[in-house]
Please model this.
Amino acid sequence: MNYETLMYTHLITVVPCIFLGAYGLMAKKGTSIHKNLGKIYMVLMLITAILTLFMPADVGGRFLNHFGWIHLFSFLTIWTVPTAYTAIKKGKIKAHQRKMVLLYIGAIGIAGGFTLAPGRFLHEFFFG
Model:
């Protein structure tokens, strides 16, 4: 898969997560819609994180001539999603909530914010 295809596929999987994650954090917990949309959110976040591992860092230093600091959020996501799912299945509601809030802030908020940095595709798209 070429870089452009990866980038657009990444956007297709992550943009819904902005809204699904916000809904999951604000809506009533434990309802069937919360659970079902949460599962969709988790799957999309995992797909997004895996896709980003194949995208080289465009800004800043690189490790192995590929990975950048932004990839730490990919690994955060790949670790957090399964552990948050496991936590809720074990009835550890507070642990699940904490992980989901941190995932949203880290992977959507902070990593998403970095996509607007000069030299990145979305910076060029929005700001020319």
